[in-house]
## 1
Amino acid sequence: MFTIPKHINHYFCDLLIQEAVPKPEQGYYKKWLRYYWDFCHKYEHSPDNKNSLPFFCKN
């Protein structure tokens, strides 16, 4: 697995809190962020490009 940079991980955690995602569900969001991050790096898609998401969703 590829490591998500700390600044992105912190931003994502802050966003989950800001959006009032319940604590028990936050783990699922973090898991899917890791899956997406791995997918993008494995298949050479840019994780910060919104056009990468459809490729991830197809798999």
## 2
Amino acid sequence: MTIKEYIDAGLQHLHVYSEGFSDLLYFLALVIIMGIITWIVHVLTRQWLARIVMKLTKRTSTNWDDLMFDQRFFNRLGLLISPIVTLVVFRAYDWTGINILMICINIWITISFLLIISSVLDGINRIYESYPVAKNRPIKVFIQVIKIFFYCAATIVIISILIDKNPATLLAGLGALSAVLMLVFKDTILGFVAGVQLISNRMVNIGDWIVMPSSNADGDVIEINLTTVKVQNWDKTISTIPTYKLVSESFTNWRGMQEAGGRRIKRSVNIDIYSVHYLSDEDLENLKQSSLLKNYIENKQREINEYNAKVVNPLDRRRLTNLGTFREYMEAWLTANPDINLNMTHMVRQLQPTATGIPLEIYCFTASTQWLVYERAQADVFDHLFAILPLFKLKVFQYPTNMEWMEEKGA
């Protein structure tokens, strides 16, 4: 090869290199310009447009616009406007590398649009939760299903942009993957079906007190979503239960108690059988001093005297017992107690005797369903019961302690 040929070959390589270098500079210039335009539009949307709209929403009398248009909405709106402006500006350029840039911008627009849709759906959910009906009919499950639909649609659109295919072609191929999709989204599908059943049948609402021992849940429901139900237990821990488990397994919902307006007291005290006896005339006179028992004893004595006047054998005569009179006293005391809900069942009943005595059960409902008020009312009932028993010469059955055994031995 001659010197001239070497020189020509070198010039040719230099020309090709210079063309490639110029294309690279052109690409970098476009990227820098696009970045500047995007940043300017983004700042204008986030700062100026957001401030104007936020001021307008605060002047309105309704609060739904405040819940809909938050700062996150405008941040995502800026992400959408910026690539659209960039796409309009650079679409007129005819350059071989512009196709890659357009693909990136289209994917950016798709993701930004998805984020805006998600923000709008969250705003709709916040607006709905501001109304009282949301406590009984939450729509968060449906909002999440709509989100999943848009996520899937955006994924298909992005893939179609990358491979330059029609999205309809990809949708046609999803039929073969339906079994795989069913397996992957099994919990989501089960959660959606269970969520619809929970909401439509009002099985669980936000704020309900539920007890589910299998999931160590005992507290208030704070959230119901597509896949899980969150329960804040009384020790302030959070139990997360799969939504479909509330349909497939049993649990206790205390909403009925709260709506009824009374919480049940059902507790018994074992009475020593050997302390049950007939009341003497002196005992009756002492018990008559109680305003709760005076009318009962007088009416009962009159009824018994009329019956005994017709009976010859002393064994057949009727007499008042201390246990029966004590039951009447407790029923009258419960009726006069303002902490007891008299519109619901209230009684003092005797159960089947056992080896530990005669169970005397207090069955009633408190006038308040609040836990602290309920426990206080229940304690007051049994405090009075234990204190008043000796006046009826009744004893509570309990296993003897060492002190009692020593006293009996010394006697």
